[in-house]
Amino acid sequence: MKIILLKSVPNLGQAGEAKEVKAGYARNYLIPHKFAIFAADPKAKEIVAELKRARIEQAQTKKILADRARTLVDKEVRIEARGTIDGKLYAAITAKQIAKLLGLPEKSINFSPVKSAGIHRASIELGGGVKTEVSVRVVLEPVP
């Protein structure tokens, strides 16, 4: 039986592919769980075209995110904070502060709060599997 996959199925194929499977597998599992439709279905061509458009759009989005990640790799975030002479801060530097400086959502930044001056690393997940890291330089504010 010829089907068109709506979703990627392990050991079978990717979304949008036409496959030949046993009739029972198609009728009892793939079609009821909305993993596939019959290839003879009148809507099949529309669905395949829609899946191709979605795949192209997803690739473009991933490319944009990858470009953004490349610009962030070389970036160093500089944060001034008050602290003691030996480099301990009075208040912790958090992911929220880094997100504000970079213009990103806080949930995309993985950074444990730090209470010491120096250079630290923050990992950023931009979505779509695109990850990068930035340097966070924490310096003490000059004493007035």
Please explain how this structure is put together:
- There is one protein chain.
- Helices cover 32% and strands 33% of the residues.
- The protein is α+β, with helices and mostly antiparallel strands and 144 residues long.
- The strands form three sheets. The protein has a four-stranded mixed sheet. Strands 2-1-3 form a three-stranded antiparallel sheet, with no helix packed on it. A two-stranded antiparallel ribbon has the order 5-7.
- Unreliably modeled segments: none
Give the second-level CATH assignment, the architecture of the largest domain: Roll
What is the CATH topology classification name of the largest domain? Answer: Ribosomal Protein L9, domain 2
Mean pLDDT across all residues, rounded?
A: 89
Classified in CATH, the superfamily of the largest domain is Ribosomal protein L9, C-terminal domain
The fraction of residues in strands falls at 25-35%
Which outline best applies? Answer: rod-shaped
Number of strands: 9
Name the CATH class of the largest domain: Alpha Beta
What's the end-to-end separation, in Å?
79 Å
Report the total helices.
3
Share of helical residues: 25-40%
Q: Secondary structure elements and their pairing?
A:
Elements: E1 2-5, E2 18-20, H1 23-30, E3 36-38, H2 44-73, E4 76-81, E5 88-93, H3 95-102, E6 109-110, E7 114-116, E8 118-127, E9 130-140
Parallel strand pairs: 4-9
Antiparallel strand pairs: 1-2, 1-3, 5-7, 6-8, 8-9
